[in-house]
Design a protein that fits this description.
The chain is α+β, with helices and mostly antiparallel strands and about 200 residues long. The protein has four helices and eleven strands; from the N terminus they run E-H-E-E-H-E-E-H-E-H-E-E-E-E-E. The protein has two domains: about 130 residues, NusG, N-terminal domain (Alpha-Beta Plaits); about 50 residues, SH3 type barrels, CATH 2.30.30. A hairpin with a 2-residue loop joins strand 9 and strand 10. Keywords: Coiled coil, Transcription, Transcription antitermination, Transcription regulation.
């Protein structure tokens, strides 16, 4: 019978180390013999969930569009965070927060207060976003996972070489509305998402 006290919690970690930390936590759970306090039926990764979306570089995107072999990276939707479904007993709480590279559990205040669970509604919305990103990738729409507010470089068309900001994304048409300054005049127009590449801000 499943433990009715299982709830989702959010673990704060060092960004980029999520997969390593999940394995470390699994090993600690096993060595401490506390499996009964974790819902191993919650996900394909047991009680842990790292929400991931496909990410592809412009070079690999060109290969994909030509029908060639290409590489996809899977990025954490919430960098530096791991979700865990558990019965937050004192021992469970202690082991998680004292695992190497774990920086805390969100919602736990000072004075020994236990963390607050993540709402089921937030988990549901995150799952929907994850599935939507996978679906768009399979449909060859917004393959670079661009977002409103992203600074992008125009790589094709009449304005190639210009930097712009994404104002709106029209996913169903694989288009974006972008804007940039040209001789002190704001230029706005629609463009194919495949003609844009994200510029990482410092």
């Amino acid at each position: 019978m499943q433990n009715s006290k299982f709830r989702w919690y959010l673990i704060s970690t060092i960004t980029g180390k999520e997969a390593v930390i999940v394995e470390a936590l699994k090993n600690r759970i096993k060595s401490e013999n506390i499996e009964q306090f974790f819902d191993f039926s919650a996900t394909e990764d047991g009680p842990f969930k790292v929400f991931k979306v496909p990410s592809i570089t412009k070079t690999e995107l060109n290969k994909k569009q030509k029908g060639l072999a290409y590489k996809v990276k899977w990025k954490n939707m919430f960098p530096g965070y791991i979700f865990v479904k558990a019965d937050m007993q004192d021992l469970v709480w202690y082991i998680i927060r004292n695992t190497l590279q774990v920086t805390g559990i969100i919602g736990s205040g000072g004075g020994g207060e236990k963390p607050t669970p993540v709402s089921q509604n937030q988990i549901r919305k995150s799952l929907e976003k994850e599935e939507e990103a996978k679906k768009l990738f399979e449909e060859n729409k917004n393959l670079l996972n661009l977002k409103v507010g992203d600074l992008v470089l125009i790589t094709d068309g009449n304005w190639v070489g210009n930097e712009a900001v994404i104002e709106k994304i029209i996913v169903e048409d694989n288009m974006a509305e972008i804007s940039f300054e040209d001789f002190n005049k704001k230029v706005e127009f629609k463009i194919n998402l495949d003609w844009l590449t994200r510029i990482e801000r410092n």
